[in-house]
């Protein structure tokens, strides 16, 4: 069993060597334009383009809650688009919790398979706690169970 490592820094600049996967949560509406994805898009354009293409083709592919898309952005860096948010929080529904914990668990299971196969570490902000409305006390155990307990190195980044 591995521990989750917490650092102050930028998850779009994953520390270390070897293959690194930067993971984040996406919604199931095709929307991309608020939260951590903006920092992602400033650094790498491919994850947004691939997510939008994936969503547009959803009638013929696996896009939906619980689905995972891995996008190479550098020889040693991949981005994991994890669809674990149903809809978006809006002014009309400010207390809505769009995060779906069961979908997040599915995404993390698939992410673990990729990380093991690639011998990769996983890097992420405190996913699901911002616009998705989730709570870290429910998300952290999922990350521990599906990633760290499988001996996958996990680093969680908090901005300074």
Structure, explained:
This protein is an alpha/beta fold and 160 residues long. Helix content is 30%, strand content 24%. The chain contains 4 helices and 6 strands, in the order E-E-H-H-E-E-H-E-H-E. It has helices at 36-43, 46-56, 101-118, 136-146; strands spanning 4-8, 20-27, 68-74, 77-85, 121-124, 154-158. A 6-stranded mixed β-sheet has the order 1-6-5-2-4-3, with helices on both faces. A hairpin with a 2-residue loop joins strand 3 and strand 4. Helix 3 (101-118) runs parallel beside helix 4 (136-146). It is globular. The chain starts with a strand and ends with a strand. The model has no long low-confidence stretch (mean pLDDT 91).
Short summary of the structure?
The protein has 160 residues and is of the alpha/beta class.
Total strands? 6
Radius of gyration: 15 Å
Number of helices: 4
> Can you tell me the residue ranges where pLDDT is under 50 for at least 5 consecutive residues?
none
Q: What is the string of SSEs from the N terminus onward? A: EEHHEEHEHE
Beta content comes to: 15-25%
Helicity level: 25-40%
Return the average pLDDT rounded to an integer: 91
Morphology call: globular
Secondary structure class reads alpha/beta
Query: What spatial order of strands do you see in the largest sheet?
Result: 1-6-5-2-4-3
Outline the fold blueprint.
Elements: E1 4-8, E2 20-27, H1 36-43, H2 46-56, E3 68-74, E4 77-85, H3 101-118, E5 121-124, H4 136-146, E6 154-158
Parallel strand pairs: 1-6, 2-4, 2-5, 5-6
Antiparallel strand pairs: 3-4
